[in-house]
Amino acid sequence: MRKVADCREFPSESNCTLTIAGTEDEVVVAAAQHAQAVHGHTDNPELREEIRKSLKDEEPGR
């Protein structure tokens, strides 16, 4: 089952609408890079764990 990270689920000043889907590891890496580059977060183990906990299963048909 593919996993999804959706920026719309987190408050941000930019009202980011990015959604990332793929394997769990792919999504965690891409979401951490996005969080650092776009939202100014520090890419560290704590951020990646927070992202991992927030992932949802991709809805069928997407």
From TrEMBL:
Pfam families per record: DUF1059 (PF06348)
Entry superkingdom: Bacteria
Protein name stated in the entry: DUF1059 domain-containing protein
InterPro entries: DUF1059
Organism the protein comes from: Embleya hyalina
